[in-house]
Specification:
Elements: E1 16-27, H1 62-79, E2 84-86, H2 87-98, E3 113-116, E4 132-139, E5 143-144, H3 147-163, E6 166-167, E7 174-179, H4 187-205, H5 222-225, H6 245-255, H7 268-277, H8 281-287, E8 298-299, E9 314-317, H9 326-347, H10 351-364, H11 374-380, H12 384-396
Helix pairs in contact: 4-7, 4-9, 11-12
């Protein structure tokens, strides 16, 4: 068990967060029969200019229709006094500002709700021909982690759900970004956090449905696909110049009828030790990157040195299935803010408390989820309500994924 209490922090030391919502949005042209009138909500003329709802959308280009959808959502949010912008329109306004064609500089994207396009979103398999569908991603502004700001997010979700017909299918995800707010996301914090995630990755996977875990190109696991499993050693210059070496090795294993996924070249305890031996955030980023053509479920690229983005110093959690359910999102957000807070406060704890924290990880890094599962982890983190919530959800959900043991032995092959 973690044996020290998390301390209350001042307002300017609160964590920061942001959420990315993905969904498909349905609309119809005026004069078209509504196939589901009992659903209510606005369905007509979302992909045409607001001032000409009677216009035939087929006279517009794909880009124009997509922009109109974004601007329609922006107008809906602004009507309810939420700051919002279309990404496409914002990019055009920035160019106009630089060219002197706009009197007022556009607001930065991180202080307002951003409506975007995400090409990875797919349209639903049923009813796909009944509507005109559009791929939409909506991002919150950067927010301090507080009950008020969580309620702010829920109010926007309520507006969207009551206004539009949205479809959250298996191609959609919900991504959460968490940072240390106005404070530096230090190397010690990052090592503590990635130690927690690496140790309890299998337990945290139990939250998600099968399609978010297995063979999802956007959420591959650290233990199976990150560089840390391939003898990446802190202090050494790791080169990714030969990007074909891993694929060639996989092809060779297939020819020899060996397992497709390559076993880690060192034990999980050695990998855990390597995390705490790292000497820079750039090393940590390289450890938790994959040379394969996949995206990992945990993204720490925004913490690289030098920073790729001057404002977004966050870790991104990508596993969660798309949803507009406030309770599900809040539970997920609470878990990750708690993990980041544990990592942060451990970084400034006493040597004895740091030793207890490391021992806690070492004691559990080789556990199967049958021995130390999700509920036990959440209780250890002091998240009693989340432990109850996910225990009940897994008991009632017919598609709850089975407990998953490590895919590999701890020996090299």
């Amino acid at each position: 068990m973690l044996n020290f209490e998390l301390k209350k922090v001042q307002w300017d030391e609160r964590l920061g967060f942001g959420i990315e919502f993905e969904f498909a949005l349905a609309t119809l042209s005026l004069g078209t029969k509504d196939p589901d009138p009992e659903q209510g909500r606005q369905i007509y003329s979302i992909d045409v200019p607001l001032d000409t709802p009677e216009r035939d959308p087929h006279t517009l280009t794909d880009i124009e229709r997509q922009l109109n959808v974004q601007l329609h959502i922006v107008n809906t949010l602004r009507t309810e006094r939420h700051r919002a912008s279309s990404q496409m329109q914002l990019e055009r306004d920035r160019i106009a500002w630089k060219n002197g064609d706009l009197d007022t500089e556009p607001d930065p994207s991180d202080v307002q709700w951003m409506v975007k396009h995400d090409d990875t979103i797919q349209f639903p398999s049923t009813g796909v021909n009944s509507y005109n569908w559009y791929k939409v991603e909506i991002c919150t502004p950067g927010l301090m982690f507080s009950p008020w700001n969580i309620r702010h997010v829920w109010s926007v979700l309520r507006i969207l759900r009551n206004k539009y017909r949205l479809n959250c299918n298996e191609s959609c995800g919900l991504h959460v970004h968490v940072g240390t707010g106005k404070k530096e996301f230090s190397l010690d914090i990052l090592k503590n956090l990635m130690g927690l995630i690496f140790t309890f990755e299998r337990q945290l996977e139990q939250i998600h449905p099968l399609h978010r875990i297995y063979h999802n190109p956007s959420t591959y696991s650290l233990r199976d696909h990150a560089n840390i499993n391939q003898n990446f050693e802190p202090g050494k210059n790791f080169s990714c110049s030969d990007r074909s070496w891993k694929s060639n090795r996989i092809k060779d294993r297939i020819r020899r009828n060996l397992p497709f996924t390559i076993a880690p070249a060192r034990s999980v305890k050695d990998s855990l030790a390597a995390i705490f031996d790292a000497t820079s955030k750039a090393e940590m980023v390289q450890m938790f990157r994959s040379d394969e053509d996949v995206r990992l479920g945990y993204n720490i690229q925004f913490l690289n040195e030098p920073y790729p983005d001057p404002f977004k110093h966050t870790i991104e959690f990508r596993h969660h299935a798309a949803t507009t359910s406030p309770e599900r999102i809040e539970r997920w957000l609470n878990i990750w803010c708690r993990l980041v807070d544990v990592a942060r406060q451990t970084a400034s704890a006493t040597d004895e408390e740091k030793g207890d924290f490391r021992k806690f990880l070492v004691d559990h890094v080789e556990d199967d989820v049958e021995d130390f599962g999700l509920s036990m982890l959440l209780v250890s983190l002091g998240l009693m309500e989340e432990a109850d919530y996910y225990s009940m959800e897994r008991a009632l959900r017919p598609d709850a994924r089975p407990d998953r043991k490590s895919m590999h032995s701890t020996t090299s092959s």
